[in-house]
Amino acid sequence: MDWNRVEGNWKQFKGSAKEKWGKLTDDDLNVIEGRREQLEGKLQQRYGFAKDQVRKDVDDWFNTLK
């Protein structure tokens, strides 16, 4: 699976993202719309993670979706 599938089916994956990162609001998830860069930016904003940590967390989450 590639990231385009996440973008195309974001409504299905939103719940999983909300479970993993509870600090993301519904508004955040609507703004993200499945775009990886937006997701990483919101995670940095909400959690204060470094860019490398955010990228690893998103990769780990993405791999659980397969």
TrEMBL record:
Coiled coil: none annotated. Residues 4-56 form the CsbD-like domain. Pfam families: CsbD (PF05532). PANTHER family: UPF0337 PROTEIN YJBJ. Belongs to the UPF0337 (CsbD) family. This is CsbD family protein. The lineage of its organism: Bacteria, Pseudomonadati, Pseudomonadota, Alphaproteobacteria, Hyphomicrobiales.
